[in-house]
Prior knowledge:
- By secondary structure, the chain is mainly β.
- It has strands at 6-9, 13-15, 20-22, 27-30, 34-36, 40-43, 48-51, 55-57, 62-65, 69-72, 76-78, 81-84, 88-91.
Amino acid sequence: MKPGAKMIVNGNAQNAKGSMTIQANAELRVNGNFAISADTVRFENTSSGIITGDMSIAFGAVFFRNPGSLSIFGIVFNSGILNNLGGIIEIGAP
C-alpha cells in the first residue's frame, strides 16, 4: 500500500503468496480475520491497522511491525515470526 492509502476489507483477508508492505501513513482495516499464510507482511513507519477478528501467522511466515499502531480485537495465533521493532500492538476487544 502506498503512503497515505486507506484500505477496508469487509470479510476475511489472507496473504498467501508474495510480500505486502503498508507504507507511511497508510491504514489497513480488516473487518474479519487476517491470515499470513506465507512470505512477509510489513507495517512500516507511521502506518496503522485494525483487525476486528483473529490474526494468524503460519510457520515460515513473517509479520514485521515498525513504528505506528496495530489493533487486533481477537486472538493472535503465531507459528511464524512476529517482529515488533517499535510502535504499539494492542490485542483484545476495544
